[in-house]
Amino acid sequence: MDKPLAAPSPWWMPHVHADRRPFLLGRNRIQAALRGFFAARDFVEVDTATLQTSPGNEAHLHAFATEAIGLDGSRAPLYLHTSPEFACKKLLAAGERRIACFAHVYRNRERGPLHHPEFTMLEWYKAGEPYETLMRDCGEILALAAETAGTRTLRYRGRETDPLREPERLSVAEAFERFAGIDLLASIDRNGETDREHLAASLKAAGLRVAEDDTWADLFSRVIVERVEPHLGLGCATILDEYPVAEAALARPTARDPRVAERFELYACGVELANAFGELTDPAEQRRRFEAEMAEKMRVYGESYPVDEDFLAALAHMPEASGIALGFDRLAMLATGASRIEQVLWAPVPETGR
């Protein structure tokens, strides 16, 4: 009988730590450099609470739940946040103009080479500034991270990105046409409503699988994952811009086309690094979108999360703004050459079942 495979040594064993330590020190240097980057640009670094009444209202994000117990024994549900976004936007409503935040965030059902249940999100927000300025920030941050790590190339699993080159800007519609031969906008009307049957026919014509119970959002995601993402961030970084409104729950529509929103994602080496928005500030529209997201979550997963009413109240006072969330650990990976996210985490979360 074959012997069972030995469990890998824990991260705290000296020989394992010695292998990881160069990546960890590189992470620290990059974080210090980024703090200097934001301070030099008059950003205030803020620190937000991890416990929230709502973890966020995106259909496919899964939170860790807990509860607060009062002095009288009463119990109220709380969640570990999946992003500091709601708190940061409340700070914009309070009067802050430029803020940055390194936040530990928590996402359930996520573990793999690029995913971890607890990780660090770097978010920054600018009141009164267009989201195109975030694109410039992204290019400068990629270059700074590489320089700090002592490299001129970002790498991940055989793919490379030159961080000194200006990122390519590509709309989602252009990417669908270029990499899948699909006219995405033909499946979206002027009100942002989507046509599932039209998109399904386009996927079938492109040789992609379509299941009977696939929604428009499922089909959209399949094209992104199977045909688009493998081509992004190769040679130079890619800014994938103008997501359909249906895929941008927290972003405002663009001025030139109401079918698409001021949302972009940053890719390097085929890896998604950041997600940015021209922020939606209409509380009624935000409530409608949250409710739609939670209805979809209930349909797919049989659960939903409460809406943060305090956040919606603050949104009515929030100025026009742009904001972005960047996976800091992933950036550290690409700059230091790490192959798994645990290599750049000082104390990884233990895997369950071990």
From TrEMBL:
It holds the Pfam family tRNA-synt_2. SUPFAM superfamilies: Class II aaRS and biotin synthetases. Keywords: ATP-binding, Ligase, Nucleotide-binding. Transmembrane segments: none annotated. Residues 27-348 form the Aminoacyl-transfer RNA synthetases class-II family profile domain. PROSITE patterns: AA_TRNA_LIGASE_II. InterPro entries: Aa-tRNA-synt_II, aa-tRNA-synth_II, aa-tRNA-synth_II/BPL/LPL, EpmA. It comes from the Bacteria. This is EF-P lysine aminoacylase GenX. It comes from Microvirga arsenatis.
